[in-house]
Design brief:
Keywords: Repeat, Signal, TPR repeat. The protein is an all-alpha fold. It has nine helices and no strands. It is globular, with a radius of gyration of 20 Å.
Length: 187
């Protein structure tokens, strides 16, 4: 009977040790992202593109080679126009690690591509709850809202994306288009 508590103590100690080694890494990742987002606000267009790429790389790190492979397969399926296969890959990631936000974002895009607006919006909501700075999800939200005729809220979503990433050409164009439509043009 005494062996079981010792075994459990060792298991708990191992888990705590693992968690304590991950916390500084996660804090370092967050500090890196904070720095990237700060730099993004003042960058010129060329530098903003490089910073954006670095942000996407950070967001795409799952910490698991298996999940990274599934993410790549989902991305490849989307690149080939196979939204149903992409949905399956992203869902597999979410089943294994529901905290990995990029799987939710990828699946939102795949759902949208498949014409499944409700599930796409639900996944975008999950992404923005976990990561309010996700300019990609905000852009996707703006696109869906605009396409469904909710132009006022679409404009708000685009403006939120622009506040985070001022150099998104499609977002800036959408803001200009919707502002002119909703607020009129100066004579």
């Amino acid at each position: 009977m005494k062996a079981a508590p010792r075994f459990l103590n060792r298991v708990v100690a191992a888990i705590l040790s693992l968690l304590l080694t991950l916390v500084p890494a996660m804090a370092g990742d967050q500090a890196k992202l904070d720095d990237l987002f700060q730099r993004l606000l003042t960058a010129d267009a060329a530098e903003a593109g490089r910073i954006e790429s670095e942000i996407w790389i950070e967001w795409g790190k799952s910490g698991s080679p298996t999940l990274d492979l599934l993410l790549q397969r989902g991305n490849d399926a989307m690149a080939m126009g196979d939204a149903p296969a992409a949905i399956e890959h992203y869902t597999a990631i979410i089943d294994h690690d529901p905290e990995f936000t990029e799987a939710w974002n990828g699946r939102a895009i795949a759902y949208y591509s498949a014409g499944e607006i409700g599930p796409a919006l639900a996944d975008i909501g999950h992404v923005l709850t976990a990561n309010p700075r996700h300019f990609g999800a905000l852009t996707g939200l703006g696109i869906i809202l605009e396409e469904t005729g909710d132009e006022t809220r679409a404009l708000a979503a685009y403006r939120a994306a622009q506040a985070i990433h001022p150099h998104l050409d499609a977002v800036n164009e959408a803001i200009g288009r919707l502002e002119a439509k909703l607020e009129g043009q100066d004579l």
